[in-house]
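Standup notes, structure subgroup. Blocker cleared on the flavin mononucleotide input:
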Amino acid sequence: MKFSFSTSGESHGPGEVTLVHGVPAGLDLLAEDVNRDLARRQQGYGRGGRQKIETDKIEFLGGVRHGYTLGAPIAMLVRNKDYAKWEHKMNPAPVDDPPEDITLPRPGHADLAGMQKYATGDLRNILERSSARETVARVAAGGVARKLLSEFGIRVNSAVYRIGNVAMDKIEAARGVRISDESEVRCPDPETTERMKSEIDDARYARDALGGSFVVVAEGCPPGLGSYVDWRDKLDARLAAAVMSVNAIKGVEVGIGFDVARHRSSEVQDEILLGEDGALTRASNRLGGLEGGMTNGEPVVISAAMKPISTIAKQLRTVDLAKGEAAMGFKERADSCAVPAAAVIAEAMVAVVLAEAFLDKFGQDNLVDIRAAYDAYIERISKIASGSAV
Ligand SMILES: Cc1cc2nc3c(=O)[nH]c(=O)nc-3n(C[C@H](O)[C@H](O)[C@H](O)COP(=O)(O)O)c2cc1C
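Run returned:
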């Protein structure tokens, strides 16, 4: 089976479950490899009270033995500590005195269309699954993908370059992805970090919330992941869809992104040069390491815009579906800015897509064969500039 994952779990239910398929046998994998990213997801200036309650950690339920993978599906569980307080409201078993329905759909959420689509009068049935709590399970899958990629020198990092009206240059931010963990907002520039924090404080004071933009950079990808042959295989499209699937992401760009429309061709394409060592190199990386739906050996650069959190203290207008009358939105505990966390989640989605494409290219079953295929490929393409591509 191809590398892929699915998740199960409600925000205040017993836990979040991830099932990862297609992980080759023989990959060293410890719970710490995954927990590190879960902790990074929980950080960020502007998060709400939920992050103080949870300390997300996985338990492996299958697919891993004595610290290495077996080639079987990997199941991981993150228990929701908050469930202790929600046992009555979220119990999988029927309860004698069910809680009252919530009937005030929040603008900007899955609430209204979800209630229509899934035929329920209680929007808790919708919000529990559509909540970004589900992304814990995605980050767990991303942790497995990253571990696999790291075996071949591929690293995925991110940086936040805009929160509300405070921004730094995207390219500069992309250069700083390795140090962004040091910033409370994942911004590599200390001065911009402070201004972003004040921007978040101002929004919170105004009982409002803020969105922003971030960039994800994957370094070390070999050329040729993805393909131009079939539209479904195009890696830029797969990466964009995966990042766009993260809650509240409203736009995704590759490389310089929408700026390609403003420039002449000579200012957009990345010229191919012959380095002194005879290796091929590029004069620039404006196209974000992707040409023709494939990696080209340059860092893969994907950026995205996140909309502001919809659940805000300054309530927005809605309609009470039980009474059929105008009302103000219902309040649920919320973040005032989750852009830094969204960047970590997007890293996970990028890692998953890259792992899938990597295994498509080099094999599925075990690390020994995959490594041999990878080494042979790198050896072969290293000779391409001397006329022996095949
Ligand atoms: C890390 C993260 C945390 C989020 N926290 C909240 C939150 O506390 N309150 C809220 O209303 N929305 C939050 N969101 C956004 C909603 O999950 C999202 O807007 C909603 O599910 C509707 O999906 P859509 O915006 O993609 O259309 C968060 C998103 C992310 C990525």
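Discussed briefly. The chain has a mean pLDDT of 95.
Next: hand off to the docking folks.
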